[in-house]
């Protein structure tokens, strides 16, 4: 769903129905910092921070970012430290605390489990992010957009309070050369780390090959899979083979890209089907195929509890009602190189007229690529940053073509847009799956919106 769309409110609402509510773990440090700078109007951030088990760190983050009454409307947000291979204490503290806060609030008064979803492609904040979620008692960790074979072992060690490391992909690394980021729970907690519950791990996969790899070659226990088709929102796995585009410029998927469910069933682990399964009667179909259930995102992304700005949700629902809601599977927009589904909506980054002349930048840095400098040190570059800077760092101009600043676009989508020179605001970037065409079907007669509980009831075939 992006960043902060499946936030603590939405995850808690789903969890309270007895289903698994999942918060997005993307860019939570930046999101928490901005929520505090607008004054934390409901007080939820400060309530959760007050329950953080390392009070000194909680106090430091509040001192750094909280503004009583909120910052002036035209004043830019204070930026947060960028993720790096060897992050400073301020970045680590904010990241651990932000993930704790999101999970803590999602679990308040809950009736069911709560999970957190990470992207394998966003590697640098992964270790402190997972630890923060585990400090809050997260029940599931979900990860896709890559091959997260090392994450099960990370969960095992963090549950015991042991130090962990994660191998980082570094472009241009020499043969046999490895780079790692590390996290030590005891040092973070001030001398000793508590034993924690080890959450279940679900790998998000688009093929039986990837599921088999995770099941057999991970460094710890894999508890199941989310099997995601190419119609799902957010990042999609690239098509197999040479990339081909259709007449509209979208990647062409074929029979080779359909997951082999028979081979996945043979692994003996539970799996849930995702990608156009967020519709009535699709749960029964999934169960017949041997799945334990379904995973739905798009239907929930536009419900009342989601983090998307209310005006944007209303526009999408109206377009769906008119039969005009659509997404474009953009092969270039995301700096990750993965195809990325973008909702086509006027006034957002999908609108070429609104986006014309926008200055390129990279000041959140979650999708930066680590690369090896000639001196052996690690540098960072993003295909969405200014072209001359990217080329100066060893990139090529063609790698920058069509790239969007996904980090800032996603935070703008949830009402936390950065203020730029000239009092301009970052434009939203909304992602959703192909099921966006059906979101208006969840709205009852005489209403303009719908709730997460109504989505759950509809998908379960219960009367609303």
Throw out a few tags for this protein.
3-stranded mixed β-sheet; 7-stranded parallel β-sheet; 31% helix; 17 helices; alpha/beta; TIM Barrel; 464 residues; single chain
Structure description:
- The protein is α/β, with parallel strands linked by helices and 464 residues long.
- It folds into two domains: 8-324 and 435-459, TIM Barrel, CATH 3.20.20; 346-429, no CATH class.
- Helices cover 31% and strands 14% of the residues.
- The protein contains 17 helices and 16 strands.
- The protein has a seven-stranded parallel beta sheet with strand order 1-2-3-7-8-9-10. A three-stranded mixed beta sheet has the order 5-13-14, with no helix packed on it.
- Helix 1 runs parallel beside helix 5, helix 2 crosses helix 5 (89-107) and helix 6 (126-135) packs across helix 7 (151-159).
- 47% of the residues are buried.
- The model has no long low-confidence stretch (mean pLDDT 93).
Structure in a nutshell:
With 464 residues, this protein is of the alpha/beta class. It contains 17 helices and 16 strands.
Which strands sit side by side, in order, in the main sheet? 1-2-3-7-8-9-10
What's the mean pLDDT score?
Answer: 93
Beta percentage is 5-15%
CATH class of the largest domain: Alpha Beta
CATH architecture classification name of the largest domain: Alpha-Beta Barrel
Write down the overall geometry: globular
Tally the structural domains. 2
Total beta strand runs = 16
By oligomeric state, this entry counts as single chain
Uncertain ranges: none
Helix content: 25-40%
| Beginning-to-end CA distance, first to last residue | 24 Å
Q: Total helix count?
A: 17
Rg of Cα set: 21 Å
Instruction: Could you tell me the CATH topology label of the largest domain.
Output: TIM Barrel
Structural class: alpha/beta
Q: Largest sheet at a glance?
A: 7 strands, parallel
């Amino acid at each position: 769903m992006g960043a902060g769309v499946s936030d603590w409110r939405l995850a808690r609402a789903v969890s309270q129905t007895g289903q698994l509510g999942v918060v997005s773990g993307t860019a939570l440090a930046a999101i928490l910092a901005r929520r505090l700078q607008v004054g934390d109007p409901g007080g939820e951030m400060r309530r959760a921070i007050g329950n953080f088990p390392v009070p000194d760190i909680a106090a430091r983050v509040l001192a750094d970012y909280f503004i009583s009454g909120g910052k002036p409307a035209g004043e830019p947000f204070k930026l947060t430290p960028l993720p790096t291979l060897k992050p400073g204490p301020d970045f680590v503290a904010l990241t651990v605390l932000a993930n704790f806060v999101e999970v803590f609030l999602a679990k308040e008064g809950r009736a069911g489990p709560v999970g957190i979803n990470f992207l394998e492609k966003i590697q640098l904040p992964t270790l402190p992010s997972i630890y923060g979620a585990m400090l809050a008692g997260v029940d599931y960790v979900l990860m896709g957009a890559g091959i997260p074979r090392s994450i099960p072992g990370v969960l095992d060690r963090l549950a015991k309070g042991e130090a962990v490391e994660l191998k980082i992909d570094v472009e241009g690394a020499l043969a046999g050369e490895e780079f790692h980021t590390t996290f030590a729970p005891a040092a973070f907690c001030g001398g000793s780390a508590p034993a924690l519950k080890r959450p279940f791990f679900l790998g998000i996969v688009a093929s039986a090959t990837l599921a088999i790899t995770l099941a057999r070659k991970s460094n710890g226990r894999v508890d199941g899979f989310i099997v995601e088709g190419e119609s799902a929102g957010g990042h999609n796995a690239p098509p197999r083979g040479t990339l081909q585009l259709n007449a509209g410029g979208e990647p062409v998927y074929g029979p080779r890209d359909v997951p082999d469910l028979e081979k996945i069933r043979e692994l003996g682990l539970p799996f849930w089907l995702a990608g156009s399964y967020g519709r009535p009667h699709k749960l029964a179909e999934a169960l017949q195929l041997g799945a334990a259930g379904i995973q739905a995102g798009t239907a929930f992304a536009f419900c009342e509890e989601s983090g998307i700005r209310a005006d944007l949700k209303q526009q999408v629902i109206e377009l769906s009602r008119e039969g005009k809601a659509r997404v474009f599977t953009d092969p270039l927009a995301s700096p990750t190189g993965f195809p990325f589904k973008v909702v086509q909506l006027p006034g957002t980054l999908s609108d070429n007229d609104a986006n014309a002349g926008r200055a390129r930048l990279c000041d959140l840095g979650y999708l930066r690529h680590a690369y090896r400098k000639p001196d052996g040190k690690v540098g960072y570059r993003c295909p969405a940053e200014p072209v001359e800077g990217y080329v100066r760092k060893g990139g090529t101009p063609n790698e920058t073509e069509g790239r969007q600043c996904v980090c800032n676009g996603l935070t703008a989508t949830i009402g936390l847009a950065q203020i730029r020179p000239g009092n301009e605001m970052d434009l939203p970037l909304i992602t959703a799956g192909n099921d966006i065409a059906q979101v208006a079907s969840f709205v009852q007669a005489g209403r303009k919106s719908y709730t997460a509980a109504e989505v759950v009831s509809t998908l379960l075939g219960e009367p609303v």
